[in-house]
């Protein structure tokens, strides 16, 4: 295999009658598309791209759309021609869309009908609807060019610290990452995978379009978030790709469903959660005690079976990525027989670096390293500490190298040189490995240094506070201050700040004294529209400061910090 298109071609030959895409069709109906049918659609679309639009090897093509199966067809069609996909988030503001399109300089732009007008105002190029590709000019019968070490995708980062940068990923990068992830996760051709993760994000691109295709399983597509929430159970997925916010939503739905069944059922459910704590060990393995097994078996045949039906009855596990998951959320799903396997990576590593798997899962960890990082296959990993020392047994910044490390940043050779040093990708993420499991503590660039010299990684504290029902979003501040403080978005503006402060103090009670926030400031909601959140809903610290600088400085002055 020398081209991503070869993966689809291979799977069609090996398992052509397997369903690859399960998609909406019409108002309420759905249809399935086999691997053979997918390959046929791709080859027809390749012919249209080649003949009608003169797409050739190395051409960049931008795609702007909400998640839909048409993207899968278009991506593989472009790869068959050796072209480069430039997926752009439909949730970005016009300013960022304009910047990306100008920076990437695509030959063509394809957009979902709902975004044609928006994209038209962001580029001199006239965007085309996906409908323009539904012509019939026969099938493209050319073999995909050997592009193994050539660019397959230009993926723009979220830009949490400034303008987005285009990460250059090769066919090798994405193929090796998808196959390496497949080695970890027990996905079979019988699995049905449901997901809302967007295809402008490298996690979904690698794990779904590449890994699931390689394993010849099925992908389930929803019309939108409402359709996903309402009909997920009817689709009976065996695996759900999720982010922590989605998992928190599912947990809330489960609790509400249990509360509606009365106090007796609620007590049975609570007992089930307590049993789960002693039933599973640190790796998620089951306790062999026969008395506990019998108790658990009864729970699985009653309350846990009912809960499972809320998500279709066939769910084996969740795969979570994109952001750290709170330990109590991970434990909750483990205790109801719906384990969450958290992974970690970044766009610059194509993206997956590590993940938890059945029998090898630790709450709070990002799992064990993927095979592409094994020295036997040309990869490696290490940590760089503050003293400039490198070693696997140290705590510091994670460095990785191997087949999945990006080719560089588009038009940013200086930044590439800083990020890539002698083959090592400096991830910017701080952590350590214990018993083979990766534990991350935060971003090096987000480090808060207090006036007394104490150093605080804010992410862990933010994750704790975000667990409060009253808080939507949070950002810690305190650089060059005596203490740290929390900037929060409240769920309801009428909620009392003093009450939230008490709950915040309680949830942070086990932290070191210098890690405990000494006050909070409630701000107007952060959002992707005003640039204070990325499209993946991560906070943009610099933009929050810029937007609310007057309020923040007044707050710090009132606390005698400035």
Automatic annotation (TrEMBL):
Highest rank taxon of the organism: Bacteria
Domain AMP-dependent synthetase/ligase stretches: 12-410
Claim: DNA-binding is one of the keywords in the record: no
Keywords assigned: ATP-binding, Nucleotide-binding
Entry-linked InterPro entries: AMP-bd_C_sf, AMP-binding_CS, AMP-dep_synth/lig_dom, ANL_N_sf
SUPFAM superfamilies reported in the protein's UniProt record: Acetyl-CoA synthetase-like (SSF56801)
Ranges in coiled-coil conformation: none
PROSITE patterns in UniProt: AMP_BINDING (PS00455)
Catalytic reaction equation(s): a long-chain fatty acid + ATP + CoA = a long-chain fatty acyl-CoA + AMP + diphosphate
Pfam family, any one: AMP-binding_C_3
Protein's recorded name: AMP-binding protein
